[in-house]
Each structure stands twice: as C-alpha cells, then as structure tokens.
C-alpha cells in the first residue's frame, strides 16, 4: 500500500511538472508569436508611412505643375471679359468652360478655376469647368482668400500644405499659380483641385494602427494582417498615380529639352515652381550670334546642302550654349538668340555667356573642317557674337495657340546690336562693360569705344572678348597690353603719338582689326579734330 501510494505520488509530480512546463511553453510561444506579428505590423506601418510621404510629394509636384499649366492655358485678356452673371451667359463663356473640361481631363484634375483679387481678404470668382447645378459657382461670386492662395498673389506657385490638411474641404487638394497679362503684370490666380482619398484614407488607417498596437497585442495581430492587405492595395494605387505623373513629366521633359540643357530640365521636373509662367523681371545675360556673309553662302548652295550646313552648325553651337546652362530662345536662319539666367537663376550668368562665346569661336575650326571636306559650304563659316547683361523680362509670350519662352528689353536689343557692331571694329565677340564687370576678372578682353548704337541713346563702353585668361598665350597678353597703351594715348587726344603707337601694334600684329580702325581715326583727327566738347563716344549708324 505504501509502495503504490509512493508511485502514484511520483506520477502526480511529473504530471504537474509536465503540465506546468507545457502551459509556460505554450504561453511563451504565443507571446513570441504575438511579438513577431507585432514587429511585422510595425514594419508594415513604417512602409505604409513611407509610401504616404512619397505620394504626398508626388501629389504636391503634380498640383504645382497642373496649376502652372492652367495659368498658361487661358490668357488674362480672355478672363477679363467675365465679371458678372450676365457675362457668363455669352457663347464665348460656354466655349471656355468646355475647354476647361478638356484641360481637367488632360491634367488629371477634378476642378480648374480662376479667381481675381476683389480686396485684401476676398476673391471674385471668374470661371471654372463645373457644369453641375448643385455645386456650380457663378461668375462674380465673392469668396474668402484661403491662406494657401495668398502665396500665389505674391507671384509664387504653391500647393496645399498636406501636413496641415483640412478634411472639411471635401477631399480636395489645391494648387495655385499666378496668371500674368501680356505685359508681365499679375492679373489673377489659377486654382486646380484634385480628389486625394488615397492620402486621407491611408492616414486614417495609420493612426488606427498605432492606437490598436498600444491597446493590445491581439488587436495588433489582427490589424497587422489588415494593414498588410491594405498596404498591397494602396501600393498598387500609388504605383498607378506615379505612372500618370511620370507620363506627364516625360512630356514636360521632352518639351523643354529642345531649348534647355538636360540638367536644367531635371531641376525643373524635380521642382516645377522654379519655372515662373508669364513675364518676370530678372537680371541676366543675352547672347546673339550670326554668321558673317551667310546670305552669299546660302545663294551658292542647293537646298539639301543648305539644310545639312545649318543643321550641323546650329547643333554644334547650340550644344555649347546648353552645356553652359544657357537657354535657346529661337533660331533666325543662321542666327541664334539665347540667354543665361532663366528659367533657373545663375549667379555667374555673365561669365557663362562669355565662356560660351569663346568656345563657339574655338569650335569654328572643327565646323569648317567638316563642312569644307563634305562640300556643303563654299567657304568657311565665321561667327559674330554680341553679349549684354542687364534687366530683362523673361517668360512665355505670344498667344494661347502659339507661345515662346523668350526675353524682351533694351538690354536684349543691345546684345543684338553688338553682334552687328563687330563688322565696324573687325572683331568677333563684343560685350558691354556691364557684362565684363560680372565675369570676375577671368577673361582676357580688349577695351574699345564708348558707343551709342542704333535705337539706344545711352553711350556704353564695349569690350572685345578674346580668351579665358587661363588659356590665353603670352603673345595675346602682349598684344592687348600694347593696344591699351595706344588707346590711352588716343583718348587723351594726342593723335600723333597715338598714330605711332597703333603703327607699332600693327607692325607686330598686322591683322589686328581694331588697330587699323584707330590708326585711320588718328590720321583723320590730325586734319579734322573733333569738337572740344566731344565726350569721346561714337554714334554707330549701322545695325
């Protein structure tokens, strides 16, 4: 009896131990499993937040790009026709609304509208693409100015701050851009809206997940699975949105790449707000180039050779300008109109323009070797270049059907005139004093006259650009040194000594064009000196 009791007691002990170990093992396994699922849930939630940030950035860029396009799509002059409800009853108003419907479809937005400033706190509604009688806003309606829109009133392209998004706006995210008239003056604000339930829903789910993870492991497990499924669905939606955005960016990239360098295009794509639509005032540099005697060259060529010649020449020279981050404005036959400092601002735009001019002259040797060997030009191509720095208006100008990103101002006209002035001084690259002062002393230049060109009354000092100082030869430095000594004597009106000085320059450098010009002046002024009140400037009557 005692033996049996002892055996039963031993069996009970092992049963209890086994049961206790099994329960602890089961609980431990459950805890580890729950912890692992929780960790997976946290990782998934991090990934979801990453995608939320990605789609947020993409959405803001899309809003800015679409708003800029809307600011360009309708002119200020056309919008100025509509101020009252009566104005909205015209045929042109309905036609414009239909055009805005097409715009909204093309740019993947829900609404596009235009609002002019009524007073410091309110907008006056102009027009939109909405035909729904339940939601339509009539022309002339006064609406409060949202804070996010005030930035557009100051000339900026902006989008709704997604970090402080107000859900009471019925799920609409907004982008704003200024609209300018033909003179570059601010007129109104373009507003585009898109429905962005992806961002709102994803944020709600993310917040819910964080709360449930804190409440209980079991709930975290359940919602971790739900979040995984949600992640898969939302990732697909994000991918679809990115495909649409990439398609739009590719079209923008293709449009700009014809007259902007690739790196500038990429900077604009990454931040569309850099490209200000409409006319804006900016300090920058213009470069005009033209081929000497090209009309005579063209008359000797058949059409096929002429096209081949221009394509090779313009492609080579344009690549140099784009490499220096310049913008091609237009081609006028053999002439190239370009500028530096827009759409992206460049601190060294003057130096870049002058460097482009120097390299263009260097490339003539390779261009002429090619065109002469191929027989597509009867004579070498020699390029004259004019460069000027100053305040210019830059932007998209023209009509709604045909626009050009271009520059206008007297400073632009000066660059154009200097290209032709080269003929009178027998030079190749001329720039104004305002340009040379901004090149940081890196160029070897020749000081010439103070001149008044055709159409511009103010006299400006002009300089011939010869080479980068780092690449200039000792002989070229010596030539310019002797020339400047002679010019100093000339400007002191010592005509006889100046004649001797320029004669010395020509003895060493017989093909120096400016020295020939000044030598002729010295001889003329010894017989017929200028008036005593002459200010030393020259009126150039030829373009």
Structure description:
By secondary structure, this protein is α+β, with helices and mostly antiparallel strands. The protein has 3 domains: 78-196, GAF domain (Beta-Lactamase); 279-470, Nucleotide cyclase, GGDEF domain (Alpha-Beta Plaits); 473-543, no CATH class. 53% of the residues lie in helices and 21% in strands. It is built from 15 helices and 15 strands. The chain has helices spanning 2-73, 76-79, 91-106, 147-153, 197-215, 217-256, 262-270, 294-299, 303-323, 349-374, 410-425, 433-436, 474-491, 495-508, 513-527; strands spanning 111-119, 122-128, 142-144, 158-159, 172-180, 186-195, 280-291, 327-332, 335-340, 383-398, 403-408, 429-432, 443-452, 460-468, 537-539. Strands 7, 8, 9, 10, 11, 12, 13, 14 and 15 form a 9-stranded mixed sheet that branches. β1 (111-119) and β2 form a beta hairpin.
Q: What would you say about this model in short?
A:
By secondary structure, the protein is α+β, with helices and mostly antiparallel strands. Helix content is 53%, strand content 21%.
